[in-house]
Amino acid sequence: MSDTGNLTAEVSTVLEAVPKGSLGVAVSGGSDSVALLRLLCDWGREHGRKIYAATVNHNLRVEAQTEAEFVANLCKDLEVPHSILNWNNWDGRGNLQNMARNARKDLLAAWAQELDLTAIALGHTEDDQAETFLLRLARGSGVDGLSCMQKITGKNPAWVRPLLNISRSSLRSYLSDLGQGWIEDPSNNDTRFDRVKMRNAMPVLAELGLTSERLATTASGLQSARGALEQVTQEAAHECCEPTKYGTVTIDLNRLQSYPLDIQYRVLSHSMGWVTGTTYRPRFSALKSTYELLKQGKSQTLAGCYIKNGSDKHLIVMREVASMMTEVLKNGYFDGRWQISANENLKGVDIRPLGEKGLMQLKDWRNLGVIRDILLQSPAAWQNGVVISAPLAGFAGPINISLKIDTDRFLQDIVSH
Predict the structure, then answer these.
(1) Would you say 240 and 252 are in contact if contact means Cβ atoms under 8 Å apart?
(2) Mean predicted confidence (pLDDT) in 338-348
(3) For residue 107, what are the CA distances in angstroms to 136, 217, 406?
């Protein structure tokens, strides 16, 4: 696919399924996202849809601000409102790429919420699909990891990938025909990154018949197998799991073990993702070893979760307190899962887990009949070292705190849409 007509038709076909309303697009300045921006501008004018653009500056390279300004100037020429979203939280520890990816998604989601955008378009291409397949194959991923990225995922906002059937070379030809330039990110040639290594290997693999198109097609075929497994996982979770208003999930281990082992892993993994509010699953090797220990009656921590072995072979999946951050009060979300709002204008208020110090301030918490560990990870509002609201621990106060996603969605979200 290379001519403009085919590109426009492919993008339009995907966007027809996007909810009505204004649409956002993430633009880094690279060829893929710049091409997407130009295509969306044409589509928006034709369909009467307002387009907004955003660039995430991770502040990890000196050139990043210049690149963001390049996009800002391009958007000005195209009469597209543009925002630069800054991330300054890298402390030099942990997996940089993973943290940057999560931060990028959080920043874009908050931006979309502020502008009331129904969806955010991302510039993933057929080449990205193929590279991701190879990366996950090298890591020993199963069906889920190897199945293709989906063109539309999530809600409020939806994440849209209109270019998954389009090659990078086609997009660059399209930009060249327009006389439109783009920025080459030097990290795309940095062989310290596994994705770059896979990208460099693609010409050799293509000679063996493993072209980007073939790999992307294989990933697409695995998506139907993933769908079948998700249906069974949903049935198992319905029978074995109980999500709660505390943001925890209780799993009946005896019932769960009546299902095939792969389904058991899926139920546990989904429960952890629901508790942490993340879409990325833990590495399978870590999940497997953790589950073996859980079956032996040992409580475990993994991927931001504390999984407690309760009575009668019940697992309780809850948030690991040490993984939860402190945030200044604002009407919005805490820890990606909790809706926070104040009845009055309060200053100097932080939102963080109740923890040991907070629990000591609540005299009647035992009357709730809720185990200590669950209350420790519940969110609370603090002012000058004093708990002023902890609704889940029986102390309402002036701050409202509740799950932003109804527990009914626990089952619904198992099946990809």
Answers:
(1) yes
(2) 84
(3) 26, 31, 23
Q: What is the mean pLDDT of residues 18-23?
A: 91
Q: Which residue segment(s) compose the domain that 394 sits in?
A: 325-403
Q: In sequence order, what E strands does 292-409 have?
A: 300-302, 305-309, 314-319, 327-328, 332-334, 338-342, 349-353, 379-383, 386-389, 399-403
CA distances from 42 to 17, 81, 211 (A): 17, 15, 31
Nearest-angstrom CA–CA distance, 315 and 299? 9
CA-closest candidate to residue 60, choices 101, 31, 32, 26: 101
CATH code assigned at 285 = 1.20.59.20
Of the candidates 21, 24, 55, the residue with the CA atom closest to the CA atom of residue 162: 24
Tell whether 253 and 330 lie within a shared domain.
no
Residue-wise pLDDT tens digits, 139-184: 877 888 888 888 998 888 999 999 999 999 999 999 999 999 999 8
Residues paired with residue 332 on neighbouring β-strands, in sequence order: 340
Last-in-domain residue among 182, 210, 238: 210
CA 139 to chain centre: 20
Residues in the chain: 417
- Given this model, what pLDDT does residue 121 score? 96
Same domain? For 266 and 285 the reply is: yes
Strands 305-309 and 386-389: unpaired
Looking at residue 1, its pLDDT comes to 44
Distances (CA, A) of 52 to 12, 148, 413: 17, 27, 28
Secondary structure (3-state) at 54: strand
Task: Let me know: does 205 contact 214? Beta carbons within 8 Å.
Answer: no
Contacts of 144 (CB under 8 A, 6+ apart): 226, 229, 281
- Helix residue ranges per DSSP H, 158-312: 168-178, 194-207, 212-240, 253-256, 261-276, 284-295
